[in-house]
Design brief:
The complex is a heterodimer.
Chain A (H helix, E strand, L loop, with lengths): L12 H8 L11 H9 L3 H13 L3 E8 L6 E7 L6 H9 L4 E7 L5 E7 L2 H15 L4 E3 L3 E4 L10
Antiparallel strand pairs in A: 2-4, 2-5, 3-4
Chain B lengths: L4 H9 L10 H9 L3 H13 L3 E8 L8 E7 L6 H9 L4 E6 L11 E7 L2 H14 L7 E11 L17
Antiparallel strand pairs in B: 2-4, 2-5, 3-4
Classes of the chains: A alpha+beta, B alpha+beta.
């Protein structure tokens, strides 16, 4: 995992600014990268090249929209309790099911956690049924009741 | 809230990210039959009405060295959960704060938050701080650190569908 990891300390100040300063309120104008370039005192081509590098190193997943839960579709947080020696195999089976993302091992009796998405609640529940059928394990289904804070990004500190 | 077909197509078109070209909104518009200005206007509206909670750079925290990622869950009386959830949300190092249902007897926890850091020990200290500040020190909790990452995001779905990228 993460075989191409490069120490983030090696990032240039410009790259650090690009990572931290545009997590929200990305410019909505015809040439957003030019606007960022003006703010940082460099050329648009430099901004594009640096974002390209950050993407290639997987420091950024994407530049895009984080959709609020249940506003444009449906999702739930789900978990399974799986014997350690089956974990990898079950994780792969779950990844093959529709709508699955963010699939992580976690340190608990419920040791496999993932998000299941779909166009609506019924689709998500059908996807959960499919996961139970494929894996033979009961799914803990924990849909959002209320969000007190949404994903608004957070600054990366470099020490 | 039912989104228009154009808004659904737009969200799907940028699911893998805005292209790194001089006129990215024009490029997105070309994929779905909208003009550059229509793409910009629709995105502004989706942000204004809260469908898009943020629009910008999505950092891969593991890759920049934030490898201690804790999901902290609390079993708190239902009539206190909103106050505690809002209090946690105020803390700069808490990145999500959600109420979710209990599933007794297996799962007694109803309040979830995420705390990310570079090292497990540092994150454990932050959790202690958060518990004191939110008056949750005596509330049963569990801390679930992430281990192996089997998938971060799904593959791109059919462009007719809107998928949520989530949290946790």
């Amino acid at each position: 995992m993460d075989g191409n990891f490069v120490k983030p300390e090696r990032l240039t100040p410009l790259q650090a600014d690009l990572l931290n300063d545009f997590q929200r309120d990305f410019p909505l104008c015809p040439r957003p990268y030019e606007k960022i370039a003006e703010q940082l005192g460099v050329d648009e081509a430099v901004v594009l090249a640096h974002f390209q590098q950050l993407a290639e190193h997987k420091y950024i997943s994407r530049i895009g929209a984080v959709v609020a839960p249940h506003k444009a579709g449906w999702s739930t947080l789900a978990a399974l309790s799986v014997p350690e020696d089956e974990l990898e195999e079950i994780a792969e089976m779950i990844n093959a099911c529709p709508g699955v993302n963010h699939n992580y091992e976690r340190s608990h009796e419920f040791n496999l956690w993932f998000v299941v998405t779909g166009v609506d609640q019924r689709t998500v529940e059908t996807n959960l049924d499919e996961i139970e059928a494929a894996t033979g394990y009961d799914v803990l289904n924990l849909p959002l009741v209320e969000a007190y804070q949404l994903d608004l990004g957070f600054p990366i500190k470099w020490n | 809230m039912e989104l228009s077909p154009q808004d659904k197509a737009l969200i799907a078109a940028i699911e893998d990210g805005l292209p790194l070209v001089s006129h990215p909104y024009e490029a997105v518009g070309n994929m779905i039959g909208l003009s550059e200005i229509e793409v910009i206007d629709r995105l502004e509206n989706l942000i204004a009405i809260g469908v898009v909670s943020r629009f910008g750079v999505v950092v891969n925290h593991r890759q920049v060295g934030y490898r201690a990622n804790a999901m902290v869950v609390w079993d708190i009386p239902d009539d206190c959960v909103a106050d505690a959830g809002r209090c946690l949300a105020e803390l700069s190092y808490v990145s999500l704060s959600y109420q979710r249902p209990r599933r007794l007897p297996d799962w007694p926890y109803n309040l979830f938050c995420m705390i990310h850091g570079r090292e497990q020990g540092a994150v454990e200290s932050l959790i202690e701080d958060a518990a004191k500040i939110a008056k949750l020190a005596d509330v049963p909790r569990a801390v679930l650190f992430s281990g192996r990452q089997f998938k971060q995001r799904g593959a791109k779905y059919s462009s007719a569908k809107v998928t949520e990228q989530s949290h946790a």
